[in-house]
Specification:
magnesium, alpha/beta, 4-stranded mixed sheet, Ribo/fructo_kinase, 297 residues, carbohydrate metabolism, single chain
Length: 297
């Protein structure tokens, strides 16, 4: 089985700073890195490092061949990444000593996906394949509907959140992956508990995976409600925490793991990732995750 990740690819410009720059302030950074990023690319790298078969569908600037090379080195299939004249997507990231981040995004080539490109990919689906999307590319609503019609299992991570769009596409989704703020926003409530009740009633076929930061993750549907605790670590950079979780969780589900096992493995992967700097470079291998889990009580 394969995960087709129709998602963003960014060049991340990462600046370590003492505090977030204030209006009118010029601030010197203490370090700088340029690394592969974007929610889509990060999730593809996580899937590959979790030893899933992943084919990325996206777009980059024709001049940025090094991006394709980096993805290939991680084990991501890049045959379905278009090369366009538009500048590649990129992000300006400020990172403080307390591991907080502030991010400015420019979509660039991420908004150059075409209907022909996407539908050609969906025509190649096999039974049991997953289609994964985030909300950093164009044609999101259309792609989710096409993916369901093509018979794929569909996972959607609607970040950055657009509640109106997400409600529009929920009937096409098998697994919705959100954080607690996004879940409460979708359920129009200020209570996590109410959100876990409202969403399954509104969308009976939907399963929701809700990440809770230091409190772990919760999976809920009309049939199940499972919570898995997070692992306590000293965080340095949380940029790729959610993307690492999603990639490892889907990889485990693809291998036939139950949701509790998949979430625990994914929490372990995220715990390792946040102790490292950068987005894609921080994502651990499956062997590292297995060794980490073996050391837990």
């Amino acid at each position: 089985m394969t995960v087709f990740n129709i998602g963003s690819i960014n060049i991340d410009h990462l600046y370590e700073v003492e505090h977030f720059v204030r209006p009118g302030e010029t601030l010197s950074s203490t370090s700088y890195q340029q690394v592969l990023g974007g929610k889509g690319a990060n999730q593809s790298v996580a899937l590959a490092k979790a030893q899933a078969e992943v084919k990325h569908v996206g777009a980059v600037c024709r001049a940025d061949q090094h991006i394709l090379q980096q993805l290939q080195e991680y084990g991501v299939n890049t045959d379905n990444i278009a090369q366009v004249e538009q500048v590649s997507g990129h992000a300006i990231i400020q990172l403080t000593p307390s591991a907080e981040n502030s991010i400015i995004l420019h979509a660039g080539a991420n908004h150059q996906l075409s209907q022909v490109q996407i539908q050609n990919v969906l025509e190649s689906l096999s039974e049991g394949d997953w289609v994964l999307l985030q909300n950093e590319t164009n044609l999101v609503a259309e792609t989710l509907e096409w993916a369901q019609q093509a018979g794929a299992k569909v996972a959607f991570n609607p970040a950055p959140m657009d509640a109106e769009l997400t409600h529009q596409v929920l009937p096409f989704i098998d697994l919705l992956i959100v954080n607690e703020v996004e879940a409460m926003d979708l359920a129009d409530t200020d209570s996590i508990e109410k959100a876990t009740q409202i969403l399954p009633k509104q969308y009976p076929e939907l399963a929701v995976m809700m990440t809770l930061g230091k409190d772990g993750v919760r999976y809920f549907s009309q049939q199940e409600d499972i919570q898995v605790a997070a692992f306590t670590v000293a965080a340095k950079d949380t940029t790729a925490a959610g993307d690492t979780f999603i990639g490892f969780c889907l990889a485990e589900l693809e291998r036939g793991s139950d949701y509790a096992t998949a979430m625990r493995t994914a929490c372990a992967a995220s715990a390792i990732a946040v102790t490292r700097m950068g987005a894609a470079p921080s994502i651990p291998s499956l062997v590292e995750v297995q060794e980490f889990l073996a050391q837990q009580p």
